[in-house]
Amino acid sequence: MHAAALHSARSEDTGSSAAAQSIEALGRRICEALPPLRLHSVSICDLQCNVLWLSEGALGPDEHALVTDALERFGSAGESFEARVEDGRVAVFLAVRAARSGLAGLVMVLADTKAGGDGLLGRIATGPVQALIRELGAAIPHAPARRLDHDPTGMLLSLADDAPPAEPTSAPARPVASRVLAPAAVDELLVHGELSLELEPPAGTSAPQGVDAAPGSAPNPPPEPPVLQPAPTTAAAAAATPDVTADSVALEVMPFVKLRSGGRMRRFEVLPRGTPRQNRDPAALDALAMHSLLAWMAAHRADWTLEPTAFTLNLSIATLEDEQFLRQLSAGFSRSGISPESVGFEIAEPLCTQRRASVERFISGCERLGCFVVIDGFTFDSAVVPLLRSKAVRLVKIDPRLCTAALKDKLAQAVVVAIVQAVKVLGIHCAAQQIETQQVLRWLTAVGCDFGQGSMLARPLPIARLQAPAGVPDAASSSADGSR
């Protein structure tokens, strides 16, 4: 989950996967074709306001509103326009049209206002860029236009649609009203294991509050809040933790490969693979991924406790701004008996500047809870450096563009070396990502980088294949010989 290539939806078939790769490739070519600018980001969105590709950073609610307004403005006419943003940026919108279906989406270019001035739109909408826009029109999957009553979260769950077909019975079935659940209901399902509002009362019980009772029956009292049980101990924890359900997501893990000897800690970045519906709501996907991770950890303790192991999950902006997330996570730790020190959260550096108050609040919450934090895409931004004071921040992941450019550019070299040395003084680990050549690997090892990620080091694997390292003694032998 790196900021260099964010996809709001992951397709489940080969054809859609190829289309996503084509969109990413075209996005990168559009960036290369742009004139020199103080660029913030380039994004590609479809008619549903889904971000199909994003060059860097993160699109928050303000940017999402810009996309919505631009799509409404394009309609069936217009090809491009320019708009000033209040925070000192300028946005240029280029309409993406398909040959047969009309408007297919748009490209939004966010740049610094100082890069603007007269003729910015003309400087961006050049012949090569327009040619790439036409190719993009054939690559973006056709989607119906966004409705005015469209849910801004992008995720609505219908219990009537997901319910299994009822068994035929002799008695006439009671009609069930179709209800739509917002993401808050999904959170309730994850925390308590059930919804306080049911469509049908179980056999032999009265109708729950909010459902019409039978004629002449007394109104039902409101349901009592669930009582959290004390944390179970080792043997009972796995049994007490709910199994991974149909609402869970598939999890893969990307190892952090040690570039320097020393230390027994194994580290893995968790990569959730959600369904297209789950991917449309990043906050719900984060909650489901966390639920699945805790369930796996509780059921497979021997695979990660015999050798010290930590897992990190990259969070969306919606989760960082959700004050309930850490409370729900604390309840999950209590139910499963899992130590919070085994779980960390990756926060992209652009979010640390764009949503500073939310990030500071989240880091403080992690410090109180006992979880750790990773700054992803770290560039030594002066606005982000003060966050390193927190005891919760234990690792930074260097921006991969710096590592790639370091072999050719002296300034990039200096910044990488400065990061490695500075975090070492603070007692924080550093990791490089997207390592793809031996030259870069050797240089990063030489300057003292602790960990590396990349295709040449290790590839993601399903979490089910994660096992305790060979040769690690079991708990009985460990206690016998006195080893940790």
Task: Please sum up the structure shown.
The protein has a ten-stranded mixed β-sheet. It has a five-stranded antiparallel β-sheet with strand order 2-1-5-4-3, with helices on both faces. The chain folds into two domains: 14-139, 2-Layer Sandwich (Beta-Lactamase); 235-479, Alpha-Beta Barrel (TIM Barrel), CATH 3.20.20.
Portion in beta strands: 15-25%
Question: What's the CATH superfamily of the largest domain, by name?
Answer: EAL domain
Q: Quickly give the structural class.
A: alpha/beta
Could you name the ranges where pLDDT drops below 50 across 5 or more consecutive residues? 1-13, 147-181, 189-246, 474-484
Mean of pLDDT: 75
Which properties best describe this structure?
10-stranded mixed β-sheet, disordered N terminus, disordered C terminus, 5-stranded antiparallel β-sheet, 18 helices, 484 residues, 2 domains, Beta-Lactamase, TIM Barrel, 17 strands
